[in-house]
Amino acid sequence: MQSIQDLSWEEYSALPISRRAECLSRTDGMPLHTIFAQQFDRASLDRLCDSATKIRAIAKSRAGMQFLQGLLFHKRAMIYFTQPSSRTFLSFLSACQILGLRTGEVRDASVSSEFKGESREDSIRTFSSYFDLIVMRTREKGLAERMAWALSQSKRPVPIINAGSGKDQHPTQALLDVYTLQRSFERRGGLRNRTVVYVGDLARGRTVRSLSHLLTHYEGIRHVFVSPSALRIGDDVLADLKDAGAQFEVSDDLAAWLPEADAVYMTRIQDEWDESAGESAKIDTSRFKIGPEQMRMMRPDAILMHPLPRRDEIATEVDSDPRAMYWRQVRNGMWIRTALIASTFDCLSRIDHWFRDNL
Fold it and tell me: Residues with Cβ < 8 Å from 266, sequence gap 6 or more?
């Protein structure tokens, strides 16, 4: 496998995504930079989910937390979010704190040198001089990947974790979604032969794009994409599923699919991507919401998920239903991101040993 350090940007960016994924990963198959879902196979997903479960068990004791906080006490992380976020930001901040990383943050470009005209590329190169990890969230498609390549060429190749990139990918949200699905079904036959129904703004929702790819690594998953026609899932996502041999359906009838679902994955309308004011408001989304009536259509053992934030696509009355998993998703996100950061710094074996010797 050719190293990313040996490739120009033109050579690297011309590669198919499967080859770029190899370039961004270590020889053990775990990511060096975490940029897109295609970097993960079944083995790496199982490794991260298993490590997240071990970390959350270790963290329950004082001695365990002291061990975890000593793992990366000598490292520093920059959390660089130029696109608004609270959940993902705090999730990564908490993950860093669990592992002892000291953090810096920029959450508004107007308080950085970008306000003076500095490019984002130069800002990120500057951060790499001070920090050992950069976690970034941006509206700009491809920026995280471009900077992963650029920093790999430097004498100090600081890893980058993509915490949301344009309308393209959100790989760590997909990781926590897979972790939530695994934990939800681990005592009920596992994450196989399941029907996952994705609902809402599927044209612009990067979480569905990343999650649907990760689920191709699990046997017998049927993907059902339910949305208004204007927000239909992209053909590139369907082509990816077809290439993987996955089953999929496209529909605009949520009520017809609710009784079939093992998991319903709701999403909000992504109107921040509107090309003209009020564009999304013209779309009738009234049939793509979940309330008590829709929950009665779902099976007793089905689950309801949402990457959050929500608006009115899930009624608050549903929150008390034991099948509602979105608050568990939030907490699961902190643990899987902790595992990912630990993996980035090659600490998973030390976690395995502590877990085996002490629990």
Answer: 199, 200, 290, 304, 305, 306, 310, 313, 314
Domain boundaries, the chain: 4-166+332-352, 171-331
| pLDDT tens digits, 141-155 | 889 999 899 899 887
CATH topology of domain 4-166+332-352: Rossmann fold (3.40.50)
E strand map for 182-302: 195-199, 222-226, 247-251, 263-266
- Is the pLDDT at 219 greater than 50? The verdict is yes
Place of tokens 């471009």: 146
Distance from C-alpha of 289 to C-alpha of 353, rounded to nearest angstrom: 46
Rounded Cα gap, residues 262 and 147, in angstroms: 38
pLDDT at position 49 over 70: yes
Check if 4-166+332-352 and 171-331 are the same fold: yes
Catalytic residue annotation: 87-88, 116, 137, 170
Give the CATH superfamily of 171-331.
Aspartate/ornithine carbamoyltransferase (3.40.50.1370)
